[in-house]
């Protein structure tokens, strides 16, 4: 998949993964049985084993899969950015916002269950995440040349934390509309990067230069 935005499941396997993510996020990995996942997609629990070896395999595919999707989407946006770092950064932010708003169960699942993966899968997730971070760091430093590498990397992690906070913001009905929420998150992300670069935030007065300064 070339971007992080959620799409409607197009196969039984994708339907199973979508419902497994939702149930795992709501009740925890150990709080959900195979039969319940099967019932959510209209097949018997044992029927799931035609698609997955078990719950552990579903969890691994969910967490490795979303890391692969985010990295692939980020690389696509860099490639298609038209040579403008500002346009690329906007596209990266928008792509991650799509993920943060449309795939909230996967954020919860990552936070709670990553350590449950077998070592090889956990290392794969971490490797993909590091590559995704470095993709952003390079673009941020092109947009804000005053940022040293360590500052840019810290800012990227901080922005990810901000955008990935969506599961903790309350039920969707209690939040602004999706468009308004996406615009707010975008402004906050740009504000965070601008702060690291020393740019004044919106509404902040710029200090006047003193004579002789």
What features would you describe in this structure?
The chain starts with 11 loop residues before the first helix and ends in a 17-residue tail after the last helix. The protein contains 8 helices and no strands. The chain is elongated, with a radius of gyration of 20 Å. Helix content is 64%, strand content 0%. It is mostly helical and 213 residues long. The protein has 2 domains: 10-52, Homeodomain-like (Arc Repressor Mutant, subunit A), CATH 1.10.10; 55-196, Tetracycline Repressor, domain 2 (Orthogonal Bundle), CATH 1.10.357.10.
Overall CATH architecture of the largest domain: Orthogonal Bundle
End-to-end Cα distance, whole Å, is 54 Å
Provide the CATH topology of the largest domain: Tetracycline Repressor, domain 2
Q: Could you give the count of β-strands?
A: 0
Q: Average pLDDT value? A: 86
The arrangement of helices and strands along the chain is HHHHHHHH
Number of helices: 8
From the spread of the alpha carbons, the general shape counts as elongated
Radius of gyration: 20 Å
User: Low-confidence stretches at least 5 residues in length (pLDDT < 50)?
Assistant: 1-7, 202-213
The CATH homologous superfamily of the largest domain is named Tetracycline Repressor, domain 2
Q: CATH top level of the largest domain?
A: Mainly Alpha
Determine the structural class based on helices, strands and strand pairing. mainly alpha
Number of domains: 2
Which band does the percent of strand residues land in? Answer: under 5%
The largest sheet, given as strand count, sense and whether it forms a barrel, is:
none
Q: Helicity range of the residues?
A: 55-70%
